[in-house]
Amino acid sequence: MAGGAFAEAGADLELIGISKRFPGFTAIEELDLRIPAGSFFALLGPSGCGKTTTLRLVAGLEEPTTGRILIGGKDVTNVKSFKRPVNTVFQSYALFPHMTVLENVAFGLRRRNIADPVGKAHEALRLVELDHLAARRPLQLSGGQQQRVALARAIVNRPALLLLDEPLGALDLKLRRQMQLELKSIQNEVGLTFLHVTHDQEEAMTMADTVAVMNRGQIEQMGAPEELYELPKTSFVANFLGQSNLFTGPVTSSTGSSIVVDVAGVKVEVPKDRAQRHAGEVTVGVRPEKLMLHTSAPKQSAGSNSLGPGRVTDVSFSGVSTQYQIAIPGIGLVTVFAQNMVFGPVVNLGSAAWVSWSVEHGFGLLDEPERAPRFAADTDTATIAMQTRHELLAEIEEA
Amino acid sequence: MRTFSFGKLSLGTALLPIYSALALVFLLVPIVYTFVFSFNDSVKSNIVWVGFTLDNWTNVCNAQGVCGAFFTSMLVGVVATVIATVLGTLMAIALARYRFRARSAISLLLFLPMATPEVVLGAGLAAQFLSAGVPKGLLTIIIAHALFCLSFVVVTVKARVASLDPALEEAGRDLYGSPLQVFWKITFPLLLPGITAAALLSFALSFDDFIITRFNNGGVETFPIFVYTAAARGVPAEANVIASAVFILALVIVVVSQLTSAARRKRLAKQA
Q: Are B51 and B41 in contact (CB under 8 A)?
């Protein structure tokens, strides 16, 4: 057995050169990752980016093709899942339907012959405020309650590392916000290392100390949420974590502290320490809420970039702010988020507009945005049916 | 026009209950006959009603060979069911959970014994036992029964395994359960309804099998063989008693399980 000891504090997790290949595709490619003890770490990425596979490798539910996994400095690569000091909150909760809530929570304690499993299970249920439902079966609970039981069942074991596999995905928005706060406070209370896998960027940013953005089996960028948001290093991060306006052009000059990029004839200045590359074709960007909207050409001034004139093609009001789309000839669509400080939209649909931002808000990326759109244009079913018919007819004619 | 259709409708509504009643009577007559004639005070053949008696019920084993045949059938049924259920459950789990070579071929082959006529199975087995030099008797009956029950167990349990969320077993392993503990604490209890259903089905199939048994019984008499043989000179009323008792037992099992599950549902509904 895994021994009767509880982890007193979280342990750090280290992944060294991890790859995972399944027949037909590679889920993870040469992944290196270090999560310090006691931190709340979020692995963020779109579906299919390898984040859940990473979690399952750590839990021991999959074996890595190459690489090593260390928990608290100990190599656990070849340790079976039931002997790892790790517990998981599954996406589907995976509560045992034939046991009471109490027995679900006590399951891990009993398997390790920990003293007083029932008392400790009640204690964990009190932590998630569900002790009054201890005698129920899981299927008699609501989704949010089941989620809390799953959490209690995992943390009661005081694992060195707690893995959360999109545990809030099935909850509605309001409950999700509430559970996010609860999870965060429980993590503070018990001091365990949390590894949270999610595709929800807002969830990752509000909960985690450190966020790693994953794409195609690799980590694109890792850091504190503010750092990732303020200074994205790749176009994927710039667009997956919030939105960005990106412009590409050659670097034409460079001063002591900044570079100047020629974007369709307009000079855009970016601080050197916020740019990943300082020469050649460079993609620079700025967040939509950092942009100022003008109805007349803004005065050229040092420390500020401006683009325009363009035409307002879309105005959508979302309560706190209004989102504007401005088509600027030669540059394309620029998105602006403006705080709603006056009644109604500041700029009307179809009118001319300029945008400007201070130089210190811009950033320069390592790569260029992909030429292909991130989402293929939706083709309606009628068109697809037409296409298929044409293809069929062509085939018949050939035969 | 209107009266005509009205008349047609009333004819239909009048005929339906009569037709239904006739169908039910047709279905139930043999059972009622068996039950009623288990109380017949017959001496030799149990065809004509002589008079009411409880003797047949109180002294079931009086008739030559009835109880022996019954206990042989019980023994064969229990042993064959245990073998078929254990093997079939393991096969079902393997087929539903793991990917291995020839998996789909094996799945298909398992259907064959169900689709094959019993005469073919029985004759084939008899030939194999003969060429292997296995003397026919209790052992060959049990082997034959375990064989044809196996497919039914695999099919029944496999459906249950397929509906089981694999994450439950993963959660068990994640919560420090060794493979053996995960099987006994999680997989097995969750499969139990399916396994029980499969076992009951096996036992029922084994208990009333005649054709395959007839090919492989040697001198051993199971209950169906006994009844068939006795039919030539008149089935003794004691056989009716056993048949009725088995029928009543099956009925009681069904009713009790229905009642308990209804009671459980009610209790759960009240708690929720």
A: yes
Cα dihedral B6→B12→B15→B20 (10° resolution) = -150
pLDDT digit string, tens, across residues B232-244: 777 888 888 888 9
- Minimal Cα–Cα distance from A156 to chain B, Å? 10
Question: In the beta sheet, which residues pair with residue A13?
Answer: A35, A71
Dist CA A158 CA A2 (whole Å): 13
Q: How far is CA A114 from CA A119, A388, B163, B172, in A?
A: 11, 63, 33, 16
Of A82, A87, A94, the CB nearest to B177: A82
Report all structural domains of chain A as residue ranges with CATH numbers, in order of start.
13-229 (3.40.50.300), 242-364 (2.40.50.100)
Which residue does chain B place closest to A154, by CA atoms?
Answer: B175
The candidate with the shortest Cα–Cα distance to A157, out of A76, A86, A250, A239, is A86
Is B174–A88 a contact, with Cβ atoms under 8 angstroms apart? yes
Name the DSSP letter for residue A152. H
DSSP letter for each residue of B183-237: IIIIIHHHHHHHHHHHHHHHHHHHHT--HHHHHH-TT---HHHHHHHHHTT---H
| In the predicted structure, residue B23 carries a pLDDT above the cut 70 | yes
State how far the Cα of A218 lies from the Cα of A274, in Å rounded to an integer: 23
Beta strands (DSSP E) in B63-143 are: none
Considering only CA atoms, give the Rg of chain B: 24
Average pLDDT over residues B154-165: 93
The secondary structure of chain B in percent helix, strand, coil, rounded to multiples of 5, reads 80, 0, 20
Give the global pTM.
0.77
The tokens describing A321, both together, are 């702010």
**Whether B170 and A97 lie within 8 Å, measured CB to CB:** no
All domains in chain B, ordered by first residue: 2-56 (no CATH), 64-235 (1.10.3720.10)
